[in-house]
Amino acid sequence: MIKFPGTAGGGRSLEVDFFRGVVLLMIVVDHISGSMLGQFTLQRFAIFDATEVFVFLAGYATAAAYTSIAERSGNEAARWRFLRRGWQLYRSFLLTVALMLALGLLFTALRLHTPTLDYTDIGTFIDEPLQIGSEMLRLARQPYLSSILPMYMLFALASPVIVPSVRRRPWVTVACSLAMWGVAPLLARFLPAVTPNGWTFNPFAWQLLFVIGVVCRLHPLKSYQREDADAVLRRRKLTRAAAAVAIGFLCMRMFVEFDPGPVFKQNLSSLRVGSFMAVLWLVAMMVRQGWIRELADRLPLVVTVGRNGLVCFVSGTMISLLADILLYLATNGSPRNWQGLVADMSAIASMLAIGVAAQAWKDYRKRSKRERAHAAHAH
Q1: How many other β-carbons are positioned within 10 Å of the β-carbon of residue 15?
Q2: Is the per-residue pLDDT at 221 higher than 80?
Q3: How does pLDDT run across 64-76, given as a tens digit for each residue?
Q4: Does the structure show a pLDDT above 80 at 227?
Q5: More confident position, 78 or 262
Q6: pLDDT at residue 377 above 80?
Q7: How far is it between the farthest Cα atoms of the chain?
Q8: Angle at which helices 291-298 and 300-307 pack, to 10 degrees?
Q9: What local confidence, expressed as pLDDT, does residue 168 receive?
Q10: What is the pTM of this model?
C-alpha cells in the first residue's frame, strides 16, 4: 500500500497536508455557483470529486496520529484522544449549522433571497425553530455543507477499533469493510433522518475509503531499494493499468452523457471507488518520485491550510456560501467568467488568510504552554 513520507518520529506528512489544503480549496470553489475555477477541479474530469480524497486522507492522518499517540502515551491515551475528537467534530457541526443559520437570517432580514439560502434550511427553521433545532442536534437534519461533519465524527469515534484492527489483521478488516460497504444502503435506515433519502453521505459506505487510508498508512509499499525485478515489473504493470482506467473514466466524464444522481455519491458507488483507486495509485507514484514534495515546498500557504483542516473547513463553508450569495446578487444569477474568477480568487485568498491566522494562533498557544512549563520548572 501507499505511504506518504513524514517527519521523524511519526510526525505530519508534508504531502498529506498539501493534498488536504488543495482539497479544501477545491471544496470551496466547487460550491460557488458560477465559479470559473470550478470548471477545472476533479469533479469535471473524474467520476469522483474532492470528497473521496478528503475521506481517504482523514483515514491516513488518523492512523498516523493514533499510532503516534499510542507509542508515546499508550493505547488508552490514543483512544481518549479520538473520543474527544469525535466530540470536537460534533461541536464543529453545530457551529457550522449555527453560522449558516445566522447568515440566512441576516439575508432574510435584508430581504435578499438567493437559491443557495434554501439549502441552509433557514425557511423551515424560522417556521419551527424548536423542532428544526432538535433535529439538527440529533443529526437528523444536516443542512448544506455541514453534512460531511457527522460522518467524520463517526469515523473518529470508530478509530479506536479500526486502527488497531488494521494494524493486527489488515485483510480481515478490509474484508469486513467491503462487506459493510456492500450492505450500506440497508444499514443507512438505522441513521436518524427526517427525509426518506437519509444522510447526504452514508457513513457505512464511505468508511471503505477511510479504512483504505488507514491501511495505506500502516502497511505501506516497500521502498524502491527493497524491490526485486519482479516487484518492479508488477509496479509498472499496475501503473499502466491505473493510467488506462483513469483515462477511460476521463473520457467517460468528458464525452459521455452521464448524470448519476445523488445516490451514486451518497452510497459511494463502485465506479467512484474504481476511479479514485486508479488515480490514487498514479499520485502515489508521483509522491515516490518526490514531485509532490517539490510542489508542496513551493506552495507553503496551501500546506498551512491543510494543517488547519477543521478550522479551514468550517470557515470554508461560510466563505463559499457568502461568495455564492454575493455573486448571485451582483450578477442577477448570471455571472460571467471573469466575475466567477473574482469570486474564486477572493474565496481562495480568504482561505489562505484563515489558514495563516489559525497556524499563528496554534503556534502562539504552543509557545505559551512551553513558557508556562519552563516557568513552573524554574520555580
Answers
A1: 26
A2: no
A3: 999 999 999 999 9
A4: no
A5: 78
A6: no
A7: 72
A8: 90
A9: 94
A10: 0.91
Radius of gyration of the chain (CA): 22
Cell, residue 90: 460534533
pLDDT tier, 55 (very low <50, low <70, confident <90, very high otherwise): very high
Cell 448544506: give the residue: 144
With residue 28 as reference, give the H or E element that holds it: helix 14-30
Specify whether the backbone of 220 is left (phi greater than 0), alpha (psi in -120 to 50) or beta: beta
337-378 and 300-307 helices, crossing angle to 10°:
70
The answer to whether 180 touches 204, Cβ cutoff 8 Å, is yes
Rounded mean pLDDT of 282-311?
Answer: 94
- pLDDT above 90 coverage of the chain, percent: 69
The CA distance from 347 to 34, in Å, is 13
Residues 358-361: contacts with CB within 8 Å, 24+ apart? 358/304, 358/308, 358/311, 358/312, 359/304, 359/307, 359/308
What is the rounded CA–CA span in Å between residue 323 and residue 282? 34
Q: How many residues are given for the chain?
A: 379
Sign of the CA dihedral with 28 first, then 30, 34, and 35 last: positive
Contacts of 3 (CB under 8 A, 6+ apart): 216, 217, 220, 221
Q: What is the rounded average pLDDT for all residues in the chain?
A: 89
Residue 169's contacts (CB-CB under 8 Å, 6 or more residues apart) are none
C-alpha grid cell for residue 282? 498514479
In the chain, what are the domain boundaries?
14-378
The single-letter code of the amino acid at 157 is L
Please give the full DSSP string across 276-320, using - where no structure is assigned.
HHHHHHHHHHHHHHTHHHHHHHH-HHHHHHHHTHHHHHHHHHHHH
- In one-letter notation, the amino acid at residue 82 is F
Q: Beta-carbon neighbour count of residue 111 at 10 Å?
A: 6
